[in-house]
Structures are given as structure tokens and as C-alpha cells.
Design goal:
Length: about 500
């Protein structure tokens, strides 16, 4: 009998008041790892109340003391690094190398948030008028909530959590119901730091829990990462309830390939972007606009990248790509490939209907490559979220940039070239928030904002770094008068 996971509320593990439980499945083996509760809105309300109580004291703890818990957390994450990475691979399917890389990027956010005493400083002016001083301070909001997707279970909660608590808020996480065990690791370790009870909490669940977080008057801000459909919904619901919201959505990331690109390097980089994490990155390249004579050589390096990738169980160090998250995901991706073919694309490498020996219950889709993707067709416009890569042609950089800027998503756009002039023009004109020049996964470091645009983001302030600090604080401006005549009395 698989273990039933508990919520982490008020510093304790508590059996959830849940409407029902879902299986947490290892996507490579089909094994049921545990059962995750779909918590009710009453359960969410109980955690929000605890968070509000914790906030009253926590906001008064000096920032220099608050970050001591983060230093301890960072040390515990390092100590248990390998065990956490293995949990990530088991529940999410990515390779162990990818899990380690992901967790490292998460820990970087903990490190950056340790600088909060400087990062959350305000500013001031003496004598804005005679005898009048003005200054701005940043204060925390209260209880802030975070809803995360399945594809980066170790990193995405850490895009938010460290900044939220370092600035003095209490933090309530609703992790993806598909990958709840990694978040349970984070809670266990935070519990060991001695963090006051209720400052960080976790409630498992699905739509009911998310709706409750958006609606509850005690939640001041919602950070969301997931598909565009749900990001748009959460943004509308949370802001209608008067909250701050930052909602990161889906993506359709295009790489423009110019004839002067280093093709071998480009094939390696784009291949890794397209097929790494089984294409389940919001920064996966899933489409190339190949300009002029770049087409033939680029198609060949991509064919090699697709055919040579070793697909297998993520815990096997030799695997270069794992399964996709669920049977539904596999069916959806395979259907989209078929739809692309019916619309006129030519399949060069077909990853459908494949299995890995010994892992017959896994949700496998092997790397798939298509050429001649028609403009406006399914493969050119739909987020595939699988290891599928399509090629389109253009005659010029102008045409390619026009295509990128006509896309509804704006998470990332990449250019491969050896021309500085082309790169300069592209980085200035491309309408996407994260730009890669000879890079296929342009994931900003923790001290930069993760800057999706258009349908990839709803809100103003993004995740990570200074944007995180601004999102989780409200500014207060104090103007005070001390007439010189009064000071002369002493
Ligand atoms: P998802 O939208 O299905 O789920 C995300 C979260 O929303 C989960 O916690 C889930 O429980 C909750 N949820 C799902 N349906 C809901 C509903 N109807 N109402 C309220 N809450 C709901 O996304 P996913 O499949 O877990 O993750 C993949 C998606 O996330 C992809 O589209 C990917 O591009 C995107 N993503 C974006 C970024 C980014 O930074 N822009 C990063 C990672 C993933």
C-alpha cells in the first residue's frame, strides 16, 4: 500500500482533510510511489490562519536573523543533494544529471536571498523641503501563496520561497500533484532549520486548493507557474480578489538558425534544448526557423542529435533523456505529431510507439524531428511539451524575426550565428523576455528576473532576484517634519 502524503501545516505533518487521493507515479516504471491528497478549501483556510499567526512575529525578526535559517537550509540542501535529486528523477522522470542541474539552480536562489538585508533596503532624502525628510522602506505583505508545475519540482518552488520568507512573509506552497515528494523534502529540511512554525507551509491539492488560495482574503499574493490556460485563470481569479499575482505560463520557443552559425555546436545546443528533460522545459526549443542555405546542414546535425540521444531510466547515469510525465501526455504528444504530419510536415525521425527495454510501463516518446512545418499549423503554434522538434524555412533574418514576433508566446527566442551585427539586431527586436544568442536554454541566473512576455506571463514583476524582492514587499514612504526651531530647544 503506497504511503499517503501529509500536508505541512503550522510546523507539523498533518493528515489532510482531502476530497480524494491521487497516485504519484514514477513515469519510467509506472510504479505508484505514494498517494497525494487533494486538500479541501477548509484545509487551505486552516493553513492560511496559521500563516497569518506566524507572520505577526516573523515580520519583526531582523532580516539578518531571518537569513540565518536560509544559510542552514542551504547547508541541508547540500547535505541531502543526491537524495533529493534522486526523488526528482523518480517522480518527474528527468535524468539524474538533469535533476542535479535543476537543484543547483534552485539552491542559487537560496544563496541570492541570503543577501536580503541589502536587497530589501529602501532609500531616503534629507531636506526634501526645509526641515522635511522623506524615506521609503520595504515591508512584507503577509501570507503569500505559490502554485507550481510538474516539470521542475526542485527549482521552481525555490524561485519564490527564499525571497518570500527572507523579506518577512509567511509562505504557503501548493506543489504539483504529479511531483509532490520533492516539495516534501524541502519542507522536511526547512523544518530542521528551526524556522518558526507556520512561516513555511505546504498544502497538497489540485484545483480546489488553488481556487481557495486565490479567494482567501488572508492570502496577499499568488505566484504561479504552469500552463498558459491555468496561468491566465489564476491571474484573473487572484487579482479579482485584490491580490498581487505573478503567473508564468507556457511557451513555444523558436530558434533562428543563420547560415554562418557553427553547425556542429548549434546541433549540440539545440538538440539538448529540444530533447533534454524530454522537451518538458518551458525553455525548450521546439521550432527552428532556418534561414537560406542553413537548412541542409542544420537538418543533418539535428537528425544526428535526435537519433543519437540515449533514452532510458533517469537513474541510469548513462541515460540522456527520460520519459514524459504521464500516459495522457504521451498520447497528446503523439497525436500532435500525427496532426503535424497530416498538415504537411515530413517526419525525419519518428519517436512514437517506442519502449525502453525493461521499462515497458514507462511513458516513452523518443526524440522526433520534422521538416517542412507549415506556418500557422499545429506544430508551429502549439506548445508540445515533449521531445519534438520542427523545422521551418525563411529567406532572411527579417522574415525570421517577423515570425518570432507574430507568435502568441514570448518566453524565449534564440539566434544561432557568428555575426555580431545580426545578434545585436535580434536581441533588440525579438519580442520575448529571455533571449539566447548561441544558447538554447536561456535560463536567467537567480539574480536576474525570469522574464517571460506575452502569453507566457501575466503580471508585472517576475520571479527571482530583485523582482522577487519587489513582488514580496510593499513600499511605505515616510515624510517627516522636524523644524530646525524645535531642535534648537535642546
Ligand atoms: P498545469 O497548468 O497543468 O499545472 C500547474 C499547477 O496548476 C499545478 O499545481 C496544478 O495543480 C494547478 N492546476 C492545474 N489545473 C488547474 C485549474 N484548472 N485550476 C487551478 N489550478 C490548476 O501545468 P503543468 O502541466 O504542471 O506544467 C507544465 C506547464 O508549465 C507548461 O505549459 C510549461 O511551459 C509551464 N511552465 C512554465 C514555466 C515558466 O517559467 N514560464 C516554467 C515551468 C513550466
Amino acid at each position: 500500500m503506497a504511503t499517503q502524503l501529509s500536508n505541512f501545516v503550522g510546523g507539523h505533518w498533518k493528515k489532510a482533510r482531502a476530497s480524494r487521493y491521487l497516485d504519484v507515479v514514477n513515469p519510467a516504471t509506472g510504479e505508484v510511489m505514494s498517494k497525494v491528497p487533494l486538500s479541501t478549501k477548509e484545509e487551505v483556510a486552516r493553513a492560511v490562519t496559521q500563516g497569518m499567526e506566524a507572520f505577526r512575529d516573523w515580520r519583526r525578526v531582523p532580516a539578518t536573523d531571518r537569513i540565518q535559517y536560509l544559510f542552514r537550509f542551504k547547508n541541508l540542501l547540500e547535505k541531502h543533494f543526491e537524495d533529493i535529486a534522486r526523488t526528482m528523477t523518480r517522480e518527474c522522470g528527468k535524468t539524474i544529471v538533469e535533476s542535479r542541474g535543476e537543484l543547483r539552480r534552485g539552491i542559487e536562489n537560496v544563496e541570492v536571498a541570503c543577501g536580503i538585508p541589502s536587497l530589501m533596503q529602501g532609500y531616503n532624502n534629507e531636506d526634501v523641503a526645509r526641515g522635511i525628510d522623506e524615506h521609503m522602506v520595504r515591508q512584507p505583505l503577509g501570507v503569500v501563496a505559490c502554485v507550481t508545475p510538474f516539470n521542475f519540482p526542485g527549482m521552481i518552488p525555490l524561485w519564490f520561497l527564499p525571497y518570500a520568507i527572507a523579506t518577512g512573509n509567511s509562505f504557503l506552497l501548493k506543489p504539483s500533484e504529479k511531483v509532490p515528494e520533492t516539495s516534501a523534502w524541502l519542507m522536511r529540511l526547512l523544518g530542521q532549520t528551526g524556522l518558526p512554525q507556520g512561516v513555511v507551509q505546504m498544502v497538497h491539492g489540485g484545483k480546489e486548493a488553488v481556487d481557495a488560495l486565490c479567494d482567501h482574503a488572508g492570502v496577499r499574493a499568488v505566484s504561479f507557474v504552469g500552463s498558459t490556460r491555468v496561468a491566465r485563470y489564476v491571474y484573473a481569479r487572484a487579482t479579482a480578489a485584490g491580490k498581487r499575482a505573478q503567473c508564468q505560463g507556457g511557451a513555444k520557443n523558436t530558434a533562428i538558425i543563420l547560415p554562418d552559425a557553427d553547425m556542429e555546436m548549434t546541433g549540440d545546443i539545440v538538440g539538448d534544448s529540444a530533447f533534454g528533460c524530454a522537451g518538458q522545459r518551458c525553455l525548450a526549443n521546439s521550432l527552428a526557423i532556418v534561414v537560406g542555405s542553413a537548412h541542409e546542414p542544420f537538418m543533418e546535425v539535428m537528425r544526428e542529435a535526435a537519433q543519437s540521444r540515449r533514452v532510458g531510466y533517469g537513474l541510469d547515469e548513462a541515460s540522456q533523456m527520460g520519459p514524459v510525465i504521464s500516459p495522457q501526455s504521451k498520447a497528446r504528444i503523439e497525436d500532435l505529431i500525427g496532426e503535424g504530419e497530416r498538415e504537411g510536415a515530413r517526419i525525419l525521425v519518428d519517436g512514437r510507439r517506442k519502449v525502453v527495454d525493461g521499462f515497458e510501463n514507462g511513458h516513452w516518446v523518443f526524440p522526433t524531428l520534422l521538416d517542412g512545418v507549415p506556418q500557422g499549423g499545429t506544430l508551429a503554434t502549439t506548445e508540445l511539451f515533449g521531445p519534438v522538434f520542427g523545422l521551418m524555412r525563411a529567406d532572411s533574418l527579417d522574415e525570421a524575426i517577423e515570425f518570432v514576433n507574430g507568435q502568441t508566446y514570448g518566453n524565449m527566442a534564440c539566434l544561432f550565428t557568428s555575426s555580431g551585427a545580426a545578434a545585436r539586431r535580434f536581441r533588440s527586436e525579438a519580442e520575448a523576455g529571455n533571449i539566447g544568442i548561441n544558447l538554447g536554454v536561456a535560463a536567467p541566473m537567480a539574480f536576474y528576473p525570469f522574464s517571460g512576455w506575452k502569453d507566457s506571463f501575466f503580471g508585472t514583476l517576475h520571479a527571482q532576484g530583485r523582482h522577487g524582492v519587489e513582488f514580496y514587499t510593499q513600499t511605505k514612504v515616510v515624510i517627516e517634519r522636524w523644524p530646525p526651531a524645535w531642535t534648537r530647544r535642546f
